[in-house]
Design goal:
Oligomer: single chain
Strand order of the largest sheet: 1-2
Strand content: under 5%
Number of helices: 8
Largest sheet: 2 strands, antiparallel
Structural class: mainly alpha
Helix content: over 70%
Length: 285
C-alpha cells in the first residue's frame, strides 16, 4: 500500500505540472484539479491503512485480501478518474458520455462501495475488545478515526451521490454549502485522531489521564464535524460566520489544544530519553 501511495503522489505531481502548463479545465466537464486532490487524499488513506491494518488482528490471509482489494480499487479509481477528466468527462455523473463510459462508471461506483465495506470491516475489528489488548491507547485513537471515516466521510459521500443522482446539484447545497468539506474532514480524522493517541502513547503520562485526553480530542473532532454537516445542510459555506460555525471552530480548537498538549508531552519525553542516552554514553566513556 505504501508503494501505491507513492505512485499516487508522483502521478498527482505530474498532473499538477500539466495543469501549470495548460490549465485545469477541459471542456465540456473535465477538471484536472479534481484527480490531483483525489490522488493526494487516497495516498493519505493508504498510508494510514498500512499503519493500522497490522493492529486489527486479521489473519495473514485476511490482511492480504483487505490490502489487495483496497489497492486494486484505488488503482482503478485513480486511473479512471484522470482519464475521464482528460477526455473532458465527469467520471461520476456525465451528460456527455456513451454506453461504454457508463459501464466503466458503474465499476467506478462499485470500487467506492468497496471502500465502505473495507473500512466498515476494519471498524468492526477495532471495536472488538481483543484488538485493544496490545496497544490500548492507539486502538482508542484508531476507533475515533474510523468513526470519523464511517460516520462523517462516508455519510458525506452518500450525500453527494444523492445530489448527483436526484437533484443534479453535484456536491453543493443551497446557496453556498459544499459537502466536500465534510467528506475531507471525515477522512482526515483517520490521521488526526490516532496521531494524538500515538503521541500520548510515547509518554509516561498515566494511562487513565492519556485516555481521557484522547477521548476529549476524539469527541471534539467528531462534534466539529457535526457542526460542519449542520452548516452545510443549511446551505451555508463552512467559512460563513454563524453560531454553528463558531461552535465548530471552538470544538476544532479544543482538538488542536489536545494535539498541542500531546506534542509537548512527547517532546519532553523525547528530550528526556535523549539526555539519558547522552549521560549513559559519557559515563561509559
Amino acid at each position: 500500500m505504501l508503494f501505491a501511495a507513492l505512485c499516487f503522489v508522483i502521478a498527482a505531481a505530474i498532473l499538477a505540472a500539466v495543469v501549470a502548463v495548460r490549465g485545469a479545465l477541459i471542456p465540456p466537464e473535465g477538471n484536472l484539479v479534481k484527480p490531483i486532490t483525489g490522488m493526494m487524499a487516497m495516498s493519505f488513506i493508504l498510508v494510514s491503512a498500512a499503519a493500522f491494518l497490522p493492529l486489527a488482528g486479521y489473519s495473514h490471509a485476511a490482511r492480504l485480501t483487505w490490502r489487495w482489494v483496497m489497492v486494486l480499487c484505488a488503482m482503478y479509481a485513480m486511473v479512471f478518474e484522470p482519464l475521464q477528466h482528460f477526455r473532458g468527462l465527469d467520471p461520476r455523473v456525465s451528460f456527455h458520455d456513451g454506453p461504454v463510459d457508463l459501464v466503466f462508471r458503474w465499476i467506478y461506483f462499485v470500487t467506492s462501495q468497496a471502500y465502505v465495506a473495507l473500512f466498515a470491516a476494519l471498524a468492526w475489528r477495532f471495536f472488538q475488545g481483543s484488538t485493544s489488548d496490545r496497544r490500548p491507547l492507539l486502538t482508542l485513537g484508531i476507533r475515533y478515526g474510523l468513526v470519523s471515516v464511517c460516520g462523517l466521510a462516508f455519510t458525506a459521500g452518500y450525500w453527494m451521490l444523492s445530489n448527483w443522482w436526484f437533484a443534479d446539484h453535484e456536491r453543493y447545497v443551497g446557496a453556498s454549502g459544499d459537502v466536500i468539506w465534510l467528506h475531507a474532514f471525515g477522512f482526515h480524522g483517520l490521521q488526526c485522531l490516532p496521531l494524538i493517541a500515538w503521541l500520548f502513547e510515547q509518554t509516561t503520562l498515566p494511562a487513565a489521564t492519556a485516555r481521557r485526553w484522547v477521548h476529549i480530542g476524539g469527541i471534539s473532532w467528531l462534534a466539529a464535524g457535526a457542526m460542519i454537516a449542520w452548516q452545510t445542510a443549511l446551505g451555508w459555506s463552512v467559512t460563513e460566520l454563524s453560531p454553528i460555525s463558531a461552535v465548530g471552530a471552538a470544538l476544532f480548537l479544543v482538538w488542536a489544544c489536545v494535539l498541542g498538549k500531546a506534542s509537548v508531552h512527547w517532546f519532553q519525553q523525547f528530550r528526556f530519553v535523549q539526555a539519558g542516552d547522552h549521560r549513559q554514553g559519557r559515563s561509559q566513556a
